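so im writing up the methods section and need the 4-hydroxy-tetrahydrodipicolinate synthase record in one place, dumping it here so i stop losing it
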Amino acid sequence: MTARRGSDFAGLSVAIVTPFKDGEVDYGRLKEQIEFQIEAGTRCLVPVGTTGESPTLTHDEHERVISETIQCVAGRAKVMAGTGSNSTAEALRLTQRAAKEGADATLQVAPYYNKPTQEGFFQHFKAVAEAVDIPVCVYNIPGRTGKEIDVSTIQRLSDLPGITMVKEATGKLDQCSAIVGTTDLTVLSGDDSLTLPMMSVGAEGVISVAGNLVPSDMIKLVTAATEGDFAEAQRMHHQLFALCSKMLGLATNPIPVKAAMRMVGRDSGDLRLPMTPLDSAGEAALQETLLAYGMASAAGA
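--- predicted struct ---
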């Protein structure tokens, strides 16, 4: 089978959280998290995406988190920088800066809030793709952005050499099937719990939230599916599904995963408003979920 564009980003990518301490980005803890991911075998790190609380970072913080990630990774994994915006000019500026810093690719969320037409989506991504020499991953997540990028628009975008990947987070398996069946783009799951179903129809990996917590288990799932060992892939899917559905369903991402990281001894610090911590009932439910998964360290949370 002919390799798809973007297939060098197949496997596990982790949308890493941004650690905060006393209201500031904790760059020391960020480096610890990066080392944890690299030791686990994560193929690609994705800083300052939604999981990294990018909407609340200043422009200087946004750029520095990307730079610090690239410098710490030092070629041991790929870095796909979250540099999207609902302003095309801002997306261009952030992406050009990340490319200059050495990012391997850019994650470009669909412009949010202003809800462009399909032609607006096309022209936005086209402008970014033509402005940089690194691959562009189009991020389709209508639950966050308020509007979906149609398959027909993604098909048009696939004609642009710089567009090589789609992070598919519509929750629609048919959407994934249509993209895989009609383009040569690499599709990456944007929902942890849909990784195996999407890979069964041709997706090649996941940009994961749960990978902040259990990267090794996510790698087992993706590797088994890639190698055609669907018995093992199904086993890992159901093991992870129980964790992901209960944990990530407690509150908006990244509230639950940050709480879980603290419970298992990898504290990533505070959340920034308007994100607020889990309440006591949510904390208790999360602790129960982590213990059921086998994370004994959560018992002391």
